[in-house]
Specification:
The protein is α/β, with parallel strands linked by helices. It has a single domain, classed as Rossmann fold. Helices cover 44% and strands 14% of the residues. It contains 15 helices and 13 strands. Helix 1 crosses helix 9 and helix 8 runs parallel beside helix 10. The protein is globular and about 70 Å long. The chain binds nicotinamide-adenine-dinucleotide. One of its GO terms (molecular function) is dTDP-glucose 4,6-dehydratase activity. Belongs to the NAD(P)-dependent epimerase/dehydratase family. InterPro entries: dTDP_Gluc_deHydtase, Epimerase_deHydtase, NAD(P)-bd_dom_sf.
């Protein structure tokens, strides 16, 4: 089987490509524009394989997409290419609309034109797997809502909580595949739009699509603008560890390699037209995550207090103003993919976060290249990119 992976040089896409090349006999065509978030160094472990090919292409370029489908003749598409950082989407939404919505539309159309010309057997077997996020569902009731309900005689404090009348701490709702979409940020709204396009292409054209919505990922090769790598790297440099507001926002963390395994299961065994939620059963507040990283660093890389004038990394934690529209809680009900496809996460948060911190300690060259931007120079030397 040959799989066209878009965004294969990014954080999750590169984990998918490494997983497929290392653990299966399938071929991969990695189609990636190589924005600031795309780094081919993430793929050095597999890029020499004769089952791997790379195409530097923008998914907004319809002619190039047509060429890639025609030259490589894939059996499936796994679509991960996207602008993915919520903070950047607030500062400048235009790229998010362009890549996540218009780019997905272009890819659907290029893939559909190609699929229409396939012989019957290959047409039946073809799959278009769209990779999305749990952020499309908006946010969920937070444990502090339960406390405020208990304190509120009339329960008015819950009036702004969607789809919910009564719940207890132990029965706080989770996102299921039936949860209504209610995105809050330009990023999640653009991803929600792309999910709707994919669903419409299935319904209108019978195009064989699948969608997955996954919770927050963490793990190696994560670009240091996101919370976990940012905290690890700032701590190592004795810089402040920024936390939005009180840090009580809850996310459901999944190790990126568990996500990659789930995605391969879905593209190879999932049922056409279905949506699968993917999550790690690891609800943590941002503050808990940052404190855990600080404890692991205290253990693995004790602070040089003479240099930074502090005893423990947690002293670097700094609360900053809340992000506009910040969702308070995400949590996934992943029972459908567990029941129907037999996928469960292999990493616990405790083991996964420790190995992630260790990875950043062991891969200072990767970090230095990313922070200095010199991975982009490496790309132009390697591929003659502009
Ligand atoms: N990171 C998470 O926690 C998370 C969770 C759930 C779902 N997702 C989704 O998974 C996908 C991958 O996320 P990620 O964290 O790896 O993102 P990332 O930002 O690390 O990588 C995105 C990749 O897409 C490429 N790209 C961007 N614009 C492109 C374009 N116009 N044409 C071709 N390539 C382009 C980039 O060069 C990069 O390699 C995204 O669709 C994201 O919405 C992410």
């Amino acid at each position: 089987m040959k799989i066209l992976v878009t965004g294969g040089a990014g954080f999750i896409g590169s984990a998918v490509v490494r997983h497929i090349i290392s653990n299966t006999q399938d071929c991969v065509v990695n189609l990636d524009k190589l924005t600031y978030a795309g780094n081919l160094e993430n793929l050095v472990a597999v890029s020499d394989s004769d089952r791997y090919a790379f195409e530097q292409v923008d998914i907004c370029d319809a002619a190039e997409l047509k060429r890639v489908f025609s030259e490589h003749q894939p059996d499936a598409v796994m679509h991960l290419a996207a602008e993915s950082h919520v903070d950047r989407s607030i500062d400048g939404p235009a790229e998010f609309i362009q890549t996540n919505i218009v780019g997905t539309y272009n890819l659907l159309e290029a893939a559909r034109a190609y699929w229409n010309e396939l012989d019957n057997k290959r047409k039946q077997a073809f799959r278009f797997h769209h990779i999305s996020t749990d952020e499309v569902y908006g946010d969920l009731p937070h444990p502090s809502d339960v406390k405020s309900e208990a304190q509120s005689v009339k329960g008015e404090s819950l009036s702004s909580v969607p789809n919910t009348s009564r719940f207890t701490l132990n029965s706080l709702p989770l996102f299921t595949e039936q949860t209504a979409y209610a995105p809050s940020s330009p990023y999640s709204a653009s991803k929600a739009s792309s999910d709707h396009l994919v669903r419409a292409w299935l319904r209108t054209y019978g195009f064989p699509t699948l969608i997955t919505n996954c919770s927050n990922n963490y793990g190696p090769y994560h670009f240091p603008e996101k919370l976990i790598p940012l905290v690890i790297l700032n701590a190592l440099e004795g810089k402040p560890l920024p936390i939005y507001g009180k840090g009580d926002q809850i996310r459901d963390w999944l190790h990126v390699e568990d996500h990659a395994r789930a995605l391969y299961k879905v593209v190879t065994e999932g049922k056409i037209g279905e949506t699968y939620n993917i999550g790690g059963h690891n609800e943590k507040t941002n503050l808990e995550v940052v404190q855990t990283i600080c404890q692991i660093l205290d253990d693995l890389y004790p602070i040089q207090h003479s240099k930074f004038n502090i005893q423990h990394y947690k002293e670097l934690i700094t609360h900053v103003s809340e992000r506009p529209g910040h969702d308070r809680r995400y949590a996934i009900d992943a029972s459908k993919i567990e029941r129907e496809l037999g996928w469960t996460p292999q990493e616990t948060f405790e083991s996964g976060i420790r190995s992630t911190v260790q990875w950043y300690l062991d891969n200072q060259d990767w970090v230095t290249n990313v922070q200095s931007g010199s991975y982009q120079t490496w790309i132009s030397q390697q591929y003659g990119a502009e």
